[in-house]
Design goal:
CATH class of chain B: Alpha Beta
Radius of gyration of chain A: 27 Å
Helix content of chain B: 40-55%
Largest interface: A-B, 48 and 49 residues
CATH superfamily of chain B: Pyruvate-ferredoxin oxidoreductase, PFOR, domain III
Number of strands of chain A: 22
Strand order of the largest sheet of chain B: 2-3-1-4-5-6
Largest sheet of chain A: 7 strands, mixed
Radius of gyration of chain B: 16 Å
Distance between the termini of chain A: 55 Å
Order of helices and strands of chain B: EHEEEHEHHEHHHH
CATH topology of the largest domain in chain A: Rossmann fold
Number of domains of chain A: 4
Shape of chain B: globular
Oligomer: heterodimer
Largest sheet of chain B: 6 strands, mixed
CATH class of the largest domain in chain A: Alpha Beta
CATH superfamily of the largest domain in chain A: Thiamin diphosphate (ThDP)-binding fold, Pyr/PP domains
Distance between the termini of chain B: 15 Å
Chain lengths: ~600, ~200
């Protein structure tokens, strides 16, 4: 049966048919749809884990019991899960353990770009990479089989264009019937990594890679395709698709097993062709592996190391390197000048519960232009985190100073404070991010007697990645009700005495609470609570501008609401877009914004 | 079986992704190899949305090369102008009469372009430019969210698949509540195209 599946849907279905019993993840673009797809299938335990490290540890435990486990995350998630990733490589598994890392070349929705193929080599774990959804579906069974045969976790590495593109998949299988029953066999030498045991496992890891080098030589999804012998292209992942289209007549070696690589197959290919080029996205990973075999190759001389590839980039690179003849196309200089078009930046939504808090932060703490070298006395430093609220860095809110990685805001705030900056520091992060890794930093603040003020923007969901549940929501990955971890009880429990919950749409309450918290000695937590309007989908009474009262001061535009614009020198609220949060009405000095009658 | 490369652009909430999913599936159901790729990073939060749909005998890249787009479907005028350079010379630009002014144009230095400016940008690449009364048609059929179906209907008039090949898949996929109005929107879009194409003196 043919179906159009995204890479993520194909990974999920492939794992399901391979008999996966436990699937865990923390949401992150472009990986989230893997777990979301499995959560629609019966007979699998699924969970949104608190963070990627926990997700992988749950996967390890499941694999120790003999069942098959799938753990998925975005590229930076594997940084968080690196510790158990190396540990799982050391102990090995029993049931298959497959870790899916979805990288985001070009940073469509990420704070950084990294090539997670290095993790396979780093942790001495075999890696598979699909070039389309069909392969993503097919290789999941192989991944679990390799994991079990070689007693190792397996890394399946995808990228945005594999995970999010839909391609035709012929679904040939059904879910495996003879699934292994869970049971734990006591084996301290394998599972208890005290140094004396770990030293012995190190040898097992090296022997495993040697055996895998032989195994991948005959891996059926690696494919040699002989065309003209003048040019041989070695490629993997989505880059292979671009290369096939750009180098129409060339010979190809498609690699699905990208660590370890099949050395003899590469050598045979090298003998068939006059010249080898490697077309790969991000780092020269294959290029370096192949060069180490003593085979001369080029790659990164003409394919950029930064960003996502596409047909133009591969083609232009090949022309510059003299691999392809220059086309008759007009050069970019001869093209008409690109017209200047107004950009369309992502922005916080109408009715977003983050807006009011960021508006107050700007009002209290941001008085000098961002180009100024030093802050004035009384201004705030606002450390921020990963989530929708990071969009508050853009005008008109412009109320953030940092954004680095999940949970970093609180530690950064404490660091600035302990270093002795003269300004007060506020850390801002979301509910899901706080659960992910903000909590550990807040414990650090309590323990080390920081004066840090922390704002948790609690919109009751993991909004940025598509409204997944997290421990604070009380909603499981399957959408059922579960025990909610209450934020205020949690922070009180670790010893924060000044804990305040405010209505996320009440500007006065936010401002007075924040001003008080800033004066208090010791850590403070303000929870600004209000639902994500895209999640709850309910609308309140809309607001409208009283055109007789509007003075055209445009203070309401400082809220940055997509429902507000200017019409005939007056503010105007779009009735279809407004959800009735009322923040603009609190800002208007003329009281000209009123509830619609 | 001719290769078809369609680039759909717009902003979050206009049904670009739904339209490209439908188009991809219709292609697959009618024997094409199909790939489609969305770029929406943080689109739900007001950014631009782009979707590449490719039909062919064998499709490699999931994205269309700049200058190779056969049909540019602009669900929003500024976005249509932004991606005009993806059109092949003489490609077809099908643009909805929809304007969504970004916040950066309200208080910023660069204003939102007029339709004439948008048209001028498109005209650097093609003279086949159609401004579609998609809003009016979607209201006529009683489903303001069916702009995407009007656009698909208009596009269908240029392609070799029969109308039923499109509507069969839609019937299987559309929620019952919006089925009739969506199909109506599709048919009216196709009729609009049949009325407009001869006026431009272009033979299919």
């Amino acid at each position: 049966m043919k179906q159009l599946l995204s890479g993520n849907e194909a990974i999920a279905l492939g794992a399901y048919h391979a008999g996966v019993a436990v699937a865990t993840a923390y949401p992150g673009t472009p990986s989230s749809e893997i777990l979301q797809s499995i959560a629609r299938m019966d007979g699998v335990y699924v969970e949104w884990s608190t963070n990627e490290k926990v997700a992988l540890e749950v996967g390890m435990g499941a694999a120790y019991s003999g069942v098959r486990a799938l753990v998925s995350m975005k590229h930076v998630g594997l940084n968080v899960a690196a510790d158990p990733f190396f540990a799982a490589s050391t102990t090995g598994i029993v049931g298959g353990l497959v870790v899916v890392s979805c990288d985001d070349p070009g940073e469509h929705s990420s704070q950084g770009e990294q090539d997670n193929r290095h993790f396979a080599k780093f942790a001495k774990v075999p890696m598979l990479e699909p070039t389309n959804s069909q392969e993503a579906y097919d290789l999941m069974d192989w991944a679990f089989n390799i994991s079990e045969e070689f007693d190792t976790p397996v890394l399946v590495r995808s990228t945005t264009r594999i995970s999010h593109c839909k391609t035709v998949v012929d679904i040939s299988k059904e879910r495996k019937a003879d699934l292994r029953q869970p049971g734990f066999t006591r084996s301290p030498a394998k599972y208890v990594m005290v140094p004396s045991n770990a030293r012995i496992r190190r040898y097992a890891m090296e022997e495993r890679i040697v055996k895998l080098r032989t195994y991948v030589e005959d891996f059926p999804m690696n494919e040699m395709l002989l065309g003209t012998r003048k040019l041989g292209v070695i490629s993997s992942g989505v880059a292979y698709q671009y290369a096939r289209e750009v180098f129409k007549d060339a010979s190809f070696l498609k690699l699905v097993t990208t660590y370890p690589i099949p050395a003899n197959l590469v050598r045979r290919f090298a003998q068939e062709v006059e010249r080898i080029v490697v077309v790969e996205e991000l780092d020269p990973f294959l290029e370096e592996e192949i060069r180490r075999l003593g085979i001369p190759v080029t790659g990164k001389e003409f394919i950029p190391i930064i960003g996502e590839l596409n047909l133009e980039i591969v083609e232009q690179g090949a022309i510059k390197a003299g691999i392809l003849p220059a086309t008759a196309k007009p050069s970019p200089q001869a093209e008409p000048p690109a017209p200047q078009l107004v950009p369309r930046r992502p922005q916080l939504c109408a009715g977003c519960p983050h807006v009011a808090t960021e508006f107050v932060l700007r009002k209290i703490g941001f008085h000098t232009p961002s180009s100024a070298k030093e802050l004035k006395k009384g201004e705030l430093i606002v450390t921020s985190d990963i989530g929708c609220y990071t969009l508050g860095v853009y005008p008109p809110l412009s109320a953030l100073d940092t954004c680095a990685c999940m949970g970093a805001s609180i530690g950064q705030a404490l660091g600035l404070e302990k270093a002795g900056v003269p300004n007060k520091v506020v850390a801002v992060l979301g509910d899901s991010t706080f659960m992910h890794s903000g909590i550990t930093a807040l414990i650090d603040v309590v323990y080390n007697q920081g004066d840090t003020t922390v704002i948790i923007l609690d919109n009751g969901t993991t909004a940025m990645t598509g409204h997944q549940g997290h421990p604070g929501t009380g909603i499981s990955a399957r959408g059922t009700e579960t025990q909610a971890v209450k934020l205020e009880t949690l922070v009180q429990g670790i010893g924060v005495k000044d804990v305040n919950v405010v209505d996320a749409f009440d500007l006065d309450a936010i401002e007075s609470t924040l001003r008080r918290s800033l004066e208090i000695k010791g850590p403070s937590v303000m929870i600004a609570r209000g639902p994500c309007p895209l999640y709850v989908k309910t609308k309140g009474t809309r607001f409208e501008v009283d055109t007789e009262e509007c003075s055209g001061c445009y203070d309401c535009l400082d809220v940055g609401c997509p429902a507000i614009s200017i019409s005939e020198d007056m503010a105007q609220i779009d009735a279809d877009t407004c959800v009735g949060c009322g923040v603009c009405a609190q800002v208007c000095p003329q009281e000209a914004i009123l509830e619609s009658k | 079986m001719k290769d078809v490369n369609v680039l759909m652009v717009g902003v979050g909430g206009h049904g670009v992704i739904l339209a490209s999913n439908a188009m991809a599936e219709i292609g697959m159901n009618n024997g094409y190899d199909v790939k489609k790729s969305d770029s929406l990073g943080m689109a739900q939060r007001g950014g631009s949305v782009m979707s590449h749909v490719r039909w062919g005998k064998h499709v490699f890249s999931p994205m269309i090369e700049k200058g190779k787009v056969d049909f540019l479907l602009g669900f929003e005028q500024l976005e249509a102008a932004r991606w005009a350079l993806y059109l092949k010379p003489g490609g077809v630009a099908i643009i909805a009469d929809i304007v969504v002014i970004p916040i950066s144009a309200i208080d910023g230095k660069i204003p939102y372009p007029s339709w004439n400016e948008v048209k001028g940008i498109l005209a650097q690449h093609t003279n086949q430019i159609y401004l579609i009364p998609a809003t009016r048609i979607s209201h006529e059929v009683g489903n303001p969210r069916a702009v995407n179906m009007v656009m698909l209907g208009f596009l269908s008039a240029f392609l070799e698949l029969k109308s039923e090949a499109w509507t069969d898949t839609m019937r299987r996929r559309l929620p019952p509540k919006f089925m009739e109005s969506s199909l109506q929107a599709f048919i009216k879009g196709a009729e609009e195209a049949k009325a407009m194409i001869p006026a431009k003196g272009i033979i299919k």
